[in-house]
Design a protein that fits this description.
The complex is a heterodimer.
Chain A lengths: L1 H19 L3 H18 L23 H8 L2 E3 L9 H16 L5 E6 L6 H21 L7 E7 L10 H7 L1 E6 L4
Parallel strand pairs in A: 2-3
Antiparallel strand pairs in A: 1-4, 2-4
Helix pairs in contact in A: 1-2, 4-5
Chain B lengths: L2 H12 L10 H4 L14 E5 L3 E3 L3 H18 L3 E3 L18 H6 L4 E9 L4 E10 L4 E11 L3 H17 L8 E8 L6 E8 L6 E2 L7 E6 L5 E6 L6 E6 L5 E3 L6 E7 L5 E8 L2 E8 L5 E3 L7 E6 L5 E6 L6 E6 L6 E2 L6 E7 L6 E7 L2 E7 L7 E2 L6 E6 L5 E8 L4 E8 L6 E3 L4 E7 L5
The chains are: A alpha+beta, B mainly beta.
């Protein structure tokens, strides 16, 4: 009896170990170990059915893009043809400023975007204006301007490709992106 | 009414320069198509297969006639008659046409020609344009060229016919550059592509690894400026079409975009965004001197020169919403010219100087429109969910623009006569946007 359930116990143990591992790459390696362990037990009495396995997310690495996205908020949204930062945007940027203070070695790029309801060139200019509004706010909160680059994608990079007000509201945004150090 | 009278009326409607009995030659040359008049009755014209001398010449002669006919038909001003109706064949047409044969099929004009092959790569092409009812030759040229350029000569002949019949320059020996689009909307691959005006000789100029936008020909049609997200800062690059070489236009603090050249090709206008503020600058391509033309906290972008090079139309939201403004070439005396309800953008001055084309967004629709340079006489000539980025054919008669269909998400290049008639798609191998139309190839 014990031999019958042993592989499952082992598998559960390994999975539990995975969930405690913060790094996703190492959890993948542990998954491989589970398969090998099952093989080692031998064939007798083993169920033939597939065992579903899914990776458990660990906490994002502090100071990573994922950390910014999940724990801080990486983007702010704008009204139509506006670069004004509303209350919700300012709260997000306050958190971003505090977060950037925590990781003084990081530099970021603020990407400004527009919805499709304008001409392409005007929207490039509008995206610049939005990215600069975010940068200026962060600088006013004490972040070194040299740590913040800006770029505009105009209407070229929608997150929601639909052609309605809900999509346009999501696309009118400025996203703070952690620069990868080469 | 006699058949002769009918013919005269149709000719006048077409505004053509075709001769009728007794009209003095000099007077005919002054007739012009009035591009503000609206739809015209296409003029029936026969384009005979060209006779051939030498290896492959007859086949080349047939294809030359096909290219000419497609150009003329595509203009909306001519209607070519099906070659199967022609009574007199290409070989007989080496001599004077039997005009009665062409009158019988109601051709009012006739194009004939001869193609001679031979020599290393040599080709000689002759053509004549005939007034069928007067029984006279209207024009005729001989071209000597490398064989691989045969399509260009066909376009040049179509241009000669167009010019002789309408009194205006043609637009057939020209190219179109545009942004090819493939892939899903959230991960679009954009490549600069170039083709002849009729879609032939299509090729890509970039590989799609970087975002590219707004290709614009230099006035000599030899180079293309475009915006590329390449390196640390997106910027304008200039591609030499013959050598394939690319160079970045200067190195400026801030992103630069919206390139457009002066009519003499010496100056490139562009927008430079610094600290979030976009202003218009003129960059002298030989001295590499950069001159600021606007200095305003508003967005100033999309500059376009008048054909005399004296003024610049541009887009600005300095009045609270995006509108059109005209200023002197040195930036002086800016004045608003658009006052209708709605938001305006992407103005482009007609090569004829008489109109400015623009995009207008109003009531949930995008329009392509035209107005006089002083802002009067505004007319909207298209309406759809998404029309934008108008440019002119080099003779100022046709507007090409981008149309996106929200139901299918297809994005196409379209063209429409300035009068608002003859709307049609410009076929491209992939989705297409941001077209620019070259001048006649020198």
């Amino acid at each position: 009896m014990l031999r019958r359930i042993l592989p499952f116990v082992l598998l559960a143990f390994v999975l539990a170990a995975c969930s405690a591992t913060p790094d996703r790459a190492s959890s993948g390696a542990a998954g491989g170990t589970a398969a090998e362990a099952a093989d080692g037990i031998g064939a007798e009495g083993l169920a033939d059915g597939d065992i579903a396995q899914s990776e458990l997310e660990g906490a994002p690495m502090p100071g990573s893009q994922e950390d910014l996205e999940i724990n801080v908020g990486d983007r702010v949204f704008f009204a139509f043809d506006s670069a004004a930062l509303d209350e919700a945007a300012q709260e997000t940027l306050d958190r971003q400023a505090a977060w950037l203070m925590q990781f003084p070695d990081l530099t970021v790029t603020v990407e400004g975007h527009a919805d499709e309801r304008g001409t392409a060139e005007y929207n490039l200019a509008l995206g610049e204006r939005r990215a600069a509004a975010v940068k200026n706010y962060l600088v006013a909160k004490g972040i070194d301007p040299d740590r913040i680059l800006t770029i505009s994608y105009g209407e070229e990079r929608p997150v929601d490709p639909a052609h309605n007000e809900a999509a346009w509201a999501l696309n009118r945004r400025a996203v703070t992106v952690v620069n990868v150090v080469n | 009414m006699t058949e002769r009278g009918l013919t005269r009326r149709r000719l006048l409607m077409a505004g053509s320069a075709l001769a009728l009995g007794g009209v003095p030659f000099a007077a005919r040359g002054q007739l012009r198509v009035d591009i503000t008049r609206g739809q015209v009755e296409p003029l029936p014209i026969a384009v005979s297969p060209f006779a051939g001398d030498g290896a492959g010449a007859a086949e080349l002669g047939r294809r030359t006639a096909e290219v000419i006919a497609a150009d003329l038909d595509g203009s909306g001003l001519f209607r070519t008659i099906d070659p199967r109706a022609y009574i007199q064949g290409p070989e007989e047409l080496r001599d004077l046409p039997r005009f009665a044969d062409w009158r019988q099929i109601n051709a009012q004009a006739l194009v004939t020609g001869v193609v001679r092959t031979g020599g290393a790569e040599g080709l000689t092409v002759e053509f004549r344009l005939w007034d069928v009812f007067a029984g006279t030759q209207m024009t005729g040229f001989r071209y000597t060229l490398a064989r691989r350029l045969w399509r260009r000569v066909a376009h040049k002949i179509a241009d000669a016919v167009y010019e002789r019949m309408t009194g205006e320059k043609g637009y057939f020996d020209t190219r179109i550059v545009y942004v090819s689009q493939t892939g899903p909307a959230t991960d679009r691959v954009k490549r600069i592509a170039i083709m002849d005006q009729d879609g032939a000789n299509h090729r890509f100029l970039t590989r799609g690894r970087e975002l590219v936008l707004t290709p614009r020909f230099t006035p000599d049609a030899r180079r293309v400026a475009y915006l590329a997200y390449r390196g640390r800062t997106p910027g304008i690059f200039l591609r030499d079409l013959a050598s394939g070489r690319d160079r970045r236009i200067g190195s400026f603090a801030g992103m630069n975009f919206s390139p457009r050249f002066s009519p003499d090709g010496r100056v490139m206008l562009m927008t430079i965004a610094r600290e979030g503020n976009s202003d218009i600058f003129a960059f002298d391509l030989s001295s590499r001197r950069l001159v600021r033309l606007t200095d305003h906290p508003a967005i100033d972008t999309s500059p376009s020169f008048s054909p005399d090079g004296r003024e610049i139309v541009f887009n600005s939201d300095r009045g609270g919403s995006p509108q059109l403004y005209v200023m002197a070439r040195d930036g002086g005396n800016p004045r608003r010219i658009s006052f209708g309800a709605g938001r305006y953008g992407s103005p482009v001055w007609s090569p004829r100087g008489d109109f400015i084309a623009f995009t207008k967004i109003k009531g949930g629709y995008f329009h392509i429109g035209v107005m006089r340079p002083d802002g009067s006489d505004e007319r909207l000539i298209t309406r759809s969910f998404f029309d934008e980025a108008p440019v002119w054919s080099p003779n100022g008669r046709i507007i090409m623009f981008t149309r996106q269909d929200p139901a299918t998400d297809r994005t196409r290049l379209m063209r429409i006569d300035l009068s608002g008639y003859d709307l049609k798609e410009i076929p491209t191998p992939t989705d297409a946007s941001d077209g620019d139309w070259s001048n006649l190839i020198p």
